Queue: 4 jobs
Job 1
Amino acid sequence: MVKISPSILNSDFGYIADTVKRLDAAGADWIHCDVMDGVFVPCISFGPPVIRALRKLTEKPLDVHLMVADPSSCLGDFADAGADIITIHCESPSCTHLHRLVTRIRSMGKKAGVALNPSTHPDALEYIYEDIDVALVMSVNPGYGGQEFIPAALRKIEVIASRINALGLPIELEVDGGVNTGNAKSIRDAGAAVLVAGSAVINAADPAGVIGILKGGQ
Ligand code: DX5
Ligand code: ZN
């Protein structure tokens, strides 16, 4: 069964503790934390101190998605704050040496993820599959919650899922952006193993019900 990693980006940060506890109780498998630096993407969200606060509120893995221009300068801070999975963008300028950075994430005892923007070719992962735990396909341009799913992402999910399968590696294929109860089945069918859902879950009156549908229930 797929995992669901609800994103807290579009929640009311004044009630972030309540939100995380509610998502935890609603059946979230991971908690997706969108870190934005105002450089790689236009907005600024939050950094390590918030991750440290969230760490005390849930036992669920904190799935930290770094949308930042220079992840190399802050990987240690996020690891110390309690991130379990640290995902970096291969398009970040400081990811010229992507292999070095994912190796560093793993050497700190964390799971390493690599995210691909919508226009990035899946071959960007070809020589790094052995060194990562999560492959994150962005199905919107990173920067904002509440955007529409870009359909071409389905083709990319299929390609990456079949490479992971052919290589026989335990990589979790995660999809982020515009996931909702209407398109979750096609995303699962394309081969996704983890669905990020922001507005679909955060705005729901019944988050547990939505998480159940995203997982493939009725
Ligand atoms: C986009 C973020 C996503 C986003 C998901 O930049 O990385 O995680 O918050 O939100 P929805 O599900 O509303 O697209
Ligand atoms: Zn994200």
Job 2
Amino acid sequence: MSSKKKCPGVMENPRSHYAEPLETLAGVFGYPAFRPHQEEIISALIRGEDAFVLMPTGGGKSLCYQIPALQRPGVGIIVSPLISLMKDQVDALRANGVAAAFYNSSLGAAEARSVLAELHGGRLDLLYVAPERLMSEDFLERLAGLEIALFAIDEAHCISQWGHDFRPEYVQLGRLRRLFPAVPIIALTATADSQTRDDILQRLGISRTACRITGFDRPNIRYTVEAKQKPFAQLLSFLGTREPYDAGIVYALSRKRVEEVAARLCEAGFAAAPYHAGLPDRERARVQDAFQRDDLQLVVATVAFGMGIDKPNIRFVVHYDLPKNIESYYQETGRAGRDGLPAEALLLFGYGDIAISRGLIENGGNPEQNRIELHKLNAMVGFAEALSCRRRVLLGYFGESPEVDCGNCDICLTPQKRFDATEDARKALSTVYRVGQRFGMGHVIDVLRGSRNERIRALGHDRLSTYGIGSNLGQDEWGSIIRQLVHLGYLEQDLARYSVLRLTESARPLLRGELTLNLARPRIRPVPARKAKKVREISRDGQGQNNGLFQQLRALRKEIAGREGVPPFVVFGDATLAEMAASRPANAEELLSVSGVGQHKLGKYGAEFLRVIAEFGG
Ligand code: ADP
Ligand code: ZN
């Protein structure tokens, strides 16, 4: 496959070199093969057809318009809503020797003039534009006189009011089809339900046959849910299992918690910083930038973080608190592993969080909206409590039904130990009955365990026949049992009324002793912090030869990135460095066969990387 790549030589405009998309893929981007669907989308556009692409984050949407823009005559116009992402995309393209630029409000007058001069001189292959700029009369007039390869509408769901991120300035894009009937349009998004999809097609005038939907699955992300017990200790023990340089995001629901967790991580020796909407713009930009440049390992953030970042090597996302719905959870976990390398999503799931989220929802005004949000929260809880493959539950939520279990989630990887819980279940159900089916889980557990609190005495619940019959088990164990009873349908929780527990019809045979019941043991317990540290040291000592070289290559990448003022991943991605460390190319030709090394980067950085590899010995 690497024979498709040209031999190193003098760089010219790559467009004049490659007749075929596969050659451009290899020669410009350094990749040996297309990912699923990329090739057919690219061919359709090159033929002048439209395309609608629904592909998960990290699926490789960008190449779907970048390669046709290089292959077709004229300039490709790319519409993107986020100015910060435009610059990264353009930096990455230029690093591959592609003539790309952006045109938005962040440019000074002189820079803007020079971009327009390049555009009119036919010297650009790709131009990234903000939607309101593109649709200004002045700019449309400019375009009318130029050859245009294609229009690409990134984050196309922004055009739909049904989508979760409607942007009024996107609506104008609906005029493009009429204004430029002969120019193909490609619309791309990672999140759109069927209503939003139809809306995008209709508004942009794209035919239904142009749809390419590649599914939602992110197979490289491993989903894990742990019962939340001592969350910070759990976080530390998780970090202890990761490489010390792995980048990650920790999401928490409140600003206060974000600040607190970030401070404790710094204390524990991690390069961590908080990020939330209450911080000054400048500080937020600094955190984002440092993270992007691998100077910061961990960002502890509220949901506000992530929209404007495009960092491919985020290795894990931890949810310290329960997200409000599956859409948010999926979007946030989806920021991990965009480069396709293994990544992890860890959710710490505590029952207390549900009550907090529910309270927040109920305090919001509109009852109809509240009902929808409670429903979405329930689905999220259902995911966290699931005893079957996590990926099945997630994809099922988005309307897909995989045929087999994924083999890459906590449920698939460590099937739960089960125990005969018949007696315990009966104790719990009787207690729910004795307290009049008018109390939530916390109170029921207090009664079971014979707790001596004020409320119990005041209510006279210390005189119930079930008072103290469950003192053999801890609070967490009872929590786990009751949750499972809810999940299996023996108990129901009145979500509209303080999560009051009630028996269902199915509880009767169990209470009467006509049924035995096996339940899962609560999963994974937190490793004490001290032990976590040890894990960390071991994983550091245990790094092999390849990893030593990998670290040196990373250091070189960082140095080059600093020199050129771009994020490190623009130089080479982690997957490319890992392949270099493993295959240890000895000359330019071997280096070129590493995935991610194209002609331009070979010419620019090849010698330096080859030198580090040669000097590493082995
Ligand atoms: P998306 O926009 O769909 O989230 P990107 O276009 O940013 O994803 O692609 C994600 C990563 O995958 C990028 O690092 C990109 O260079 C890489 N990539 C895309 N297509 C291929 C391919 N055919 N072979 C190898 N890597 C690819
Ligand atoms: Zn699974």
Job 3
Amino acid sequence: MNDMTQSPLDRDARAIMQANDRGRYSIPTSGLYPYQWNWDSAVAAAGYAEFDLDRAWLELETLFSGQWANGMVPHILFHKVDPGYFPGPDVWGCEGGPIASSGISQPPIAPTFARMVWEKDRAAGDAPMRRLFPKMLAWHQWFMDWRLDRGAVCVTHPWEAGRDNAPDWDGAMAAIDPTGVGDYQRRDTSHVDSDARPTKYDYDRYIWLVQLGRRLKWDEAALLKENPFRVADPTMTFALLRSARDLLAIGQALDLDTGALQDDIKTLEAGADTLWNPELEAYDARDVRSGLWAGSLSNASFMCWYAGIDNPAMQAPLEKMMRDSAYPVPSYPVDGEKFDSKRYWRGPSWAVMNMLIGVGLEDCGKPEGTLLRQKTGDLIRNFGFAEYYNPLDGTPAGGESFTWPAAVWLSWAGRA
Ligand code: GLC
């Protein structure tokens, strides 16, 4: 995009990205999220790729500079300690990586977004992709080694799915007794309204799970045995499946060792099938400990197309979701019993999820993809670059001047 073709909104989006740029990485927004978040950075890279390809690669390189020896790429990298955020590195107590970090991961969309960055300008060369590829493959392998249940990918903390307080986790969270979690001071509610954030009930359990991981030294084998929270998650499963397909395509194009990716794709496809809840008639989260379904249609259910799964049985729920709210895709159905238009992942629409769903639909040649791109564009045009939005009327909520709606605008929603 050169300066001549920039619209005022393109300029605003670039200004937000530049304001949230900390040199080698981006923060999601100042105050509320002062560190580097994993999947936010992947989307940021696609945004940067529209005006500064080197900066796009740097974002991804910095993310992978925090990779642990076991292959895990953390959900937060604490590059520079900020007392305005809780829980910080002292609470996580991690020693597994080269940079202070959290002890959990986030949906692996970075390989897919790295492919977008790479394909933006193949003439610019393959060197950054060649450097990144083995690291991305090692992260993929970490998921395959530690997180599969019948081929579906599990999360060990709600934050790992990136959909912190989604109804998907209610059953598994209820099984946790957070007695002894102790006193702590939340910081999120000093930045934004508490009615748009997770409740204290949820927060006690989030912190309890962090304390458990710390006690077990973030050892995956020990967590597999002891952590009561283990949920097979559509966000993770669809993201890893898509990522595996992209890694395979990149590896083949560059003649690199692609390991067991071909077999892994089959395993993950079978895993995605295990997330089909016949009663809900949709993809759902599955509590591995209790064997129970969450019974929750979510925006992650609609990531099947992103994973290359064009399941005709998802057509009716998709049409209903697109019809029922002015600004789809809500994180939970607007007529569902747990719907809350303001509270984070229990109702609001998120630009990033819309991009993942929309890109998937477009890749599968479905017209709803174009419609979703337009509607996401409208949301940003009418209500700005917010963390999330009320799906009924578009009211922006959470943090403002946010990196990922800006990057979603530049790389997807703002492009006709
Ligand atoms: C919230 C979101 C998560 C995101 C992070 C930073 O925790 O739930 O998905 O990565 O904020 O934007």
Job 4
Amino acid sequence: MTDDALDSLIESLESEAKRDRAPEDTPDVGIIMGSDSDLDVMMGTEEDSGAYHALVEELGFEEQTDYDDPPEARFTFETYVVSAHRTPELMYVYGETAEDRGLDVIIAGAGGKSADLPNMTASIAYPVPVVGVPVQEKSVDSVIGMPTGAPIVAVDAGKSFNAALSAAQILARKHPGLRERLVTYHENLKAEVGEVSRDLHELGTPGFRQR
Ligand code: RP5
């Protein structure tokens, strides 16, 4: 990231914080990750579902890429790379402007043994809740190890899909339509297990394996 790009990102966040936009026009969920190498874990791939699949495919969110041109969907998210150690200024401004920019919840993921982006963002953005995603197993202690009085919500290593569901659960307390989407998602999971169980029983083990 050049200094120009970094400065313009910081300026854009600061100027958005001063705007008076309607809640429908601002992102509801902010997703930040320590590096673009975290993208597959954070947003998912064709093989492994991540936050993108949960938000877009299961819950009907759209990704907002232009603050002046919000997507049609009522619920939106934004995505950024924010490095705690290489761009601490950006991390600080991101957390500090989160509430004024209309974010209701942040999902923050980082890998490595010093995965400080989620926990530092939780402290800076407080009281906006932060759902932390340890991108690797070795990042778990760093993400969840917060002192008393400095809260973070966190999911297991790599579970950005669950982080997105948790973020939507927070939003859904105020939005019945989103609550319905979450309930429908869960009902579908239940039905799938029921169908698999029935098929296993009725086909028997060899038949089930061949189906
Ligand atoms: C990568 O460095 C990790 O996946 C982590 O998210 C990223 C950012 O670390 P810092 O730049 O904050 O040290 O190894």
